[in-house]
Automatic annotation (TrEMBL):
Keywords: Transferase. InterPro entries: Glyco_trans_2-like, Nucleotide-diphossugar_trans. It comes from Marinimicrobium koreense. CDD domains: GT_2_like_d (cd04196). It comes from the Bacteria. This is Rhamnosyltransferase. GO terms for molecular function: hexosyltransferase activity. The lineage of its organism: Bacteria, Pseudomonadati, Pseudomonadota, Gammaproteobacteria, Cellvibrionales. Residues 18-123 form the Glycosyltransferase 2-like domain.
Length: 320
């Protein structure tokens, strides 16, 4: 498999920032901030990129900041949605590693301690992610995010698998400075489906990915989630046109990744993505040949077939 981690220095002495991208998060942000501030080791700084909230989010953050021994800073988001908010705020952090945090979750007390075991002093892009508890506060039970969404975390280490099926949850992710630097030139790319997926692709293809099987946060589910568990019933009722539109976006993102990062991929992956780009530029026979030669995969056989059909019928999906 590509992207074997370097046996680099352990995390002693490595600092970290936490980036929380907010939008109308007044109901939950205080509880999340307190769960972050309880972590050991503590963050160097908590950066809040607020995307023009119309509620009391900023006031609550400022109130928590007044009594916090750890600096909490608010900056203005671009006002263009969660993807742009995350990707434009990441370069404004300064620590060795940066945790992404959703405004409405709760970190478990041992989250950073578990992640610190995977951190290294190194120069290649690195992303770490974990499982999470999908949590409905009005219910007693909670469930593994990976189990509910049938995710296989090891697939994140192979960009050929990751290109068509994301297994990395942004709310549980941590990235290093090298990954942020590698991401910056493409932060405004229009074909990015989701920020966590894009960051994971870059790390998987040009650096490496680690994961933690233990859930490290409560992934709160409520009516106003900007991004919720994919196991929601509403996702099962999407129209055919909606599903095809989503498939087209995924194919475009994979093509954009190949265009911008393909030359830096391991040799075992370069042929896959070069053939993929040629297939999208070609006719239906060339796209079918790509499938028969490489057998791109998704979650299970049903999703494999849907992916193959989307590629064969990918009329008008062309790389740059």
């Amino acid at each position: 498999m590509p992207n074997t981690p370097n046996p680099a220095q352990p995390a002693s002495g490595i600092d970290y920032d936490v980036l929380v991208c907010t939008y109308n998060g007044a109901e939950f942000i205080e509880e999340q901030l307190h769960s972050i501030l309880r972590q050991q080791p503590a963050p160097k700084r908590v950066l809040i990129s607020d995307d023009h909230s119309a509620d009391n989010t900023r006031a609550i953050v400022n109130q928590v900041a007044q009594s916090s021994p750890i600096p909490i800073e608010i900056i203005d988001g671009p006002g263009r949605g969660v993807i742009r908010n995350v990707l434009t705020a990441l370069p404004k952090t300064t620590a060795d590693y940066v945790f992404l945090a959703d405004q409405d979750d709760i970190w478990l007390d041992n989250k950073v301690a578990l992640f610190a075991e995977k951190m290294h002093s190194e120069h290649s892009p690195h992303l770490i992610f974990s499982d999470a508890w999908v949590w409905h506060p009005d219910r007693e039970e909670k469930h593994s995010f990976w189990e509910l969404d049938q995710l296989r975390p090891d697939n994140a280490r192979d960009p050929r698998r990751l290109a068509f099926h994301n297994t990395v949850q942004g709310a549980s992710a941590c990235v290093n400075r090298s990954l942020i630097a590698a991401m910056e030139p493409t932060a405004e790319h229009p074909d990015i489906v989701m920020h966590d997926w894009w960051l994971a692709l870059i790390a998987s293809g040009t650096g490496h990915i680690d994961y933690i099987r233990e859930p490290t946060l409560l992934y709160r589910q409520h009516d106003n989630n900007q991004v919720g568990s994919q196991n929601k019933a509403g996702r099962k009722n999407r129209s055919l046109s909606h599903r095809r539109a989503i498939a087209t976006r995924i194919l475009r993102q994979a093509a954009a990744f190949a265009d911008h990062y393909g030359d830096g991929l391991p040799l075992s992956c370069q042929g896959f993505f070069k053939h993929y780009r040629r297939a999208l530029r070609g006719n239906i026979i060339q796209r079918g040949t790509f499938i028969l030669r490489h057998w791109p995969k998704h979650r299970d056989m049903r999703h494999h077939i849907t992916l193959w059909a989307s590629i064969v019928l990918a009329k008008g999906v062309k790389p740059e």
